[in-house]
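With this grant's support, the team has encoded backbone shapes as discrete tokens. A representative record is reproduced below.
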Amino acid sequence: MEKDKHFVGWLLLMAPHPHCSLCPTLTFGLIYGQQMQRAGPSSPSCSSTSACFPLGHLNNTAECGSETTAEPEKREVRANNTPTDLYKMQSIVSFYICHLLCLGLGLACVVCVCLWNSRWRGGFAWDASTLQFNWHPVLMVTGLVVVYGNGAVLYRIPLTWGQNKLPWKLLHAALMLLALVLSIVGLCAVFDFHNAKNTPNLYSLHSWIGIAATALFAIQWVVGVAGFLLPCSPMSLRKLLKPVHVWMGGSILSLSIAACISGINEKLFFVLKGNGSGAQPYASLPPEAVLANSLGVLIVAFGLVVLMILSNHKWQRPDSRPENMAYTPLLQEENE
């Protein structure tokens, strides 16, 4: 009878489980291992159940077919993702450092150009006199360089990523329009002054570069509004215009910086001649020349930081909309 009981129990253990073909072998191994532990080791080479039966360490309460190695794999995935998260965090921190540097340099440029024309050039007026001319460098540096540069890097700010792009597009267009208006008013100031003094217009290299930058800027703004904001603009046209728009933006900024640098140097040559008016010559580097030269260095530094931000592919706004999604009108658009 005892043998029959053992035989019936063995048959029950070997009965196949409806969900797993490995359960008879696993269960048999576990039971046999427990019996071996009660009876004691049969040989010196097998001192434990885990040594004799490699599957004995599995959890009895786990479902058939489950893998106990899933948790180590999850830990490994998390460990592999940690360097990527740190790399992204370092990239974001680097961007904000550059952006703060850009804001600081832009503010320094505006302060220097205002200080130069208010303290050494007599101040400002709008009466076709020399005081009206002083508006020209202030407006051109503020509009065509500082406001333009900050408007160009607006899309690179990580806080704007993942949000509705429409408000940021409108803000970008508004900043660029403000820069364009300031530059046009600056051109009007110098043209009025030249006409009142019977001075020829557009005869110097500085004037050629400046008028070219302003004209290209106006074209760039009109094409940008027509291509990216009008509801009738198709998706294919927007994709075609985007790389040209970005390249033209950097080129216009470069032309603006060249125009400002040449204009500062030209102005210093005109006013610091060392004649009987008491002004020291430019060659002796008086305080006015030091401030104006420092302004030129700040403008170049500002432009380099802006161009570095624009050229870094890691800081570009990720495309949040699939390429095959149809274009939606301006007022219905949520993300691009």
